[in-house]
Design brief:
Low-confidence stretches: 1-10, 268-283
CATH topology of the largest domain: D-Maltodextrin-Binding Protein, domain 2
Number of domains: 2
CATH class of the largest domain: Alpha Beta
Mean pLDDT: 83
Radius of gyration: 19 Å
Strand content: 15-25%
C-alpha cells in the first residue's frame, strides 16, 4: 500500500545519504590536479541490475557524486547486467580483486561464495528487521565482512540496501512450506539458497539475473525470490499471480574497490577513511 511505498522511499533516501558520504570520503583520497595524470579515464563498476532499479539508481548517484567531488577527475561507469562478468554475477569478487574491474556495487549474496562471512545475511529467518540489519552492518559483523574482503584484495567502502526477499510464482498461493513442494523457483547460484529451497521442498533452479527475467517471462520457471525493489521494475505481476511476503532474509548491498588500486591513493587519507567507515554505514 501507500505506507509501504513511503517506507521503501524513506529507506532509499537514507541510502542516498550513505552514497553521498561514501562518495565524499572517496573524494578525499585524490590529490590536486598536478597528479591527475595518474587516474584512469574510466573506472569500471559492475552492477547486476540496470539503471531502472533502486540499486542501479544508487550506482548512478555514486558515480555522479564522485565525479562532482573530484572535479571530474574520477569517472566511474556502471556496467549493467553483470556484462563485464559475462553474466556470471558470482564472479565480481575475483574480477575486482584481480583488477579487471575497478569497483562494484554488489549484493552480499553474490560475494558470499568467496567472502563466506557474508553468508550470515543469507541465514533464513535470522534477521527480522532493518534495525537489526543496521546493527549488524555497523557492528562486529560488518567489520568482519570488510576484514575478510581485505584479505581477498578488496576494500569495502559502504553499505546500502536491497531489501527483504519475497517469493512470487504463477502456480498457487504459498501459505505453508508444503505449498512450495515441486515449484521450480529461480534462485541465485549460492549453495545456501539451493539448500534452503530444497529443504522447503521446492525445485530450485540456479541462473544469473541476466537470464532470469526472460526465464520467468517464458514460463521456464514457476517463480522466483527477490526483494520488492527488484520485482517492481520488471512488472512481475504480469507473469506471476501470487506473491508471498515472508521477509525470510535480507541481503545488503556493498560498495567495494580493488585494494591494490585503493592502496595507491595518498596515505594521509587512511585515518580519515577509518573514521568515515562507520559514518558511511549510518542510514
Amino acid at each position: 500500500g501507500g505506507g509501504g511505498g513511503k517506507f521503501i522511499m524513506k529507506r532509499f533516501s537514507l541510502n542516498a545519504i550513505c552514497i553521498l558520504i561514501a562518495a565524499t570520503a572517496l573524494a578525499l583520497v585524490f590529490p590536486g590536479p598536478s597528479q591527475a595524470g595518474k587516474f584512469k579515464k574510466e573506472y569500471k563498476m559492475t552492477v547486476v541490475v540496470t539503471a531502472g532499479y533502486y540499486w542501479g539508481q544508487g550506482a548512478l548517484k555514486f558515480a555522479e557524486l564522485v565525479k562532482e567531488k573530484t572535479n571530474g577527475r574520477i569517472n566511474i561507469k556502471p556496467y549493467w547486467r553483470s556484462q563485464l562478468l559475462k553474466g556470471a554475477q558470482l564472479k565480481s569478487v575475483q574480477m575486482v580483486a584481480n583488477g579487471a574491474i575497478d569497483c562494484a556495487m554488489e549484493s552480499t549474496i553474490n560475494i558470499s561464495p568467496v567472502i563466506t562471512e557474508a553468508n550470515i545475511f543469507s541465514l533464513p529467518f535470522f534477521i527480522n528487521s532493518f534495525e537489526n540489519l543496521d546493527k549488524m552492518e555497523n557492528g562486529q559483523t560488518g567489520r568482519a565482512v570488510f576484514a575478510a574482503m581485505e584479505k581477498k584484495g578488496l576494500k569495502g567502502l559502504a553499505w546500502a540496501e536491497n531489501g527483504f526477499r519475497q517469493v512470487t510464482n504463477s502456480a498457487r498461493p504459498i501459505r505453508t512450506p508444503a505449498d512450495l513442494k515441486g515449484l521450480k523457483l529461480r534462485v541465485v547460484g549460492s549453495p545456501i539458497f539451493i539448500d534452503i529451497f530444497r529443504q522447503l521442498g521446492a525445485d530450485p533452479v540456479t541462473m544469473n539475473w541476466a537470464d532470469a527475467v526472460s526465464a520467468f517471462q517464458q514460463g521456464i520457471v514457476d517463480g522466483l525470490e527477490n526483494p520488492v525493489g527488484v520485482l517492481l521494475p520488471v512488472k512481475i505481476w504480469q507473469y506471476h499471480k501470487y506473491a508471498t511476503f515472508w521477509n525470510y532474509l535480507v541481503d545488503p548491498v556493498v560498495f567495494f574497490w580493488n585494494k591494490k588500486q585503493w592502496d595507491k591513493f595518498p596515505k594521509e587519507w587512511t585515518h580519515k577513511r577509518k573514521n568515515s567507515h562507520y559514518i558511511s554505514m549510518i542510514r
